[in-house]
Amino acid sequence: MNKLLSSLIVISFSLSATTSLALPDDINQDMVTSCPARSESFLDQGLEICRGTSNEPAEINQGSLKLSGLEIRIEREQGSISTIIVSGSPAAFQQQPEIEQAIVYASGSSITLNNENQMIIIQGNAAFSQEGTIDTTAERIEYDIANRKLDATQMNMVIPATANP
User: Fold this and answer.
1) What whole-number distance in Å separates Cα of residue 27 and Cα of residue 18?
2) Structure confidence by residue, pLDDT tens digits, 5-52
3) pTM to 2 decimal places
4) Which of 15, 16, 26, 163: CA 20 to 30 A from 78?
5) Domains contained in the chain, CATH given
């Protein structure tokens, strides 16, 4: 059973941390986690740890949502996902916000998706982009999903001339 867990886990509950930033159908998809190196589940603690390698990173897929990195920690409280922390070189996130919008990409040393406060925090060589609208780099970027607000420290930003504010 442990070998099966380390290769692929299908989690039947949804990732509501990204519902405001997701295609409507994403929330109805199963969350599929691939752990090529090792997987550990601490059921009494509500914690799952999924590990990959630099050649084959750990991954989570749910509809248009894709997360990857060397390690993915899924923390649950009362049966619901509270936080997902992805670390690696780099940790990566992508998701299509709406059908007619370009995919949002983020990468950094770590990415934290916090369900409670609807935030994505990207740290360490942080990058956030959406084709045609914004391309941002900083040491730390916070993205408020519900309000579509980007906050960064020591930020460098490129806004294409064709982008609408």
Assistant:
1) 8
2) 333 333 322 333 333 446 667 778 888 889 999 888 888 889 999 999
3) 0.79
4) 26
5) 2-158 (2.60.450.10)
Sequence-distant (≥ 6) Cβ neighbours of residue 1 within 8 angstroms: none
Q: Which residues contact 3 (CB under 8 A, 6 or more apart)?
A: none
Per-residue three-class SS string for the chain: CHHHHHHCEEECCCCHHHHHHCCCCHHHCCEEEECCCEEEEEHHHCEEEEECCCCCCEEEEECCEEEEECEEEEEEECCEEEEEEEEEEEEEEEECCCCCCCCEEEEEEEEEEECCCCEEEEEEEEEEEECCCEEEEEEEEEEECCCCEEEEECCEEECCCCCCC
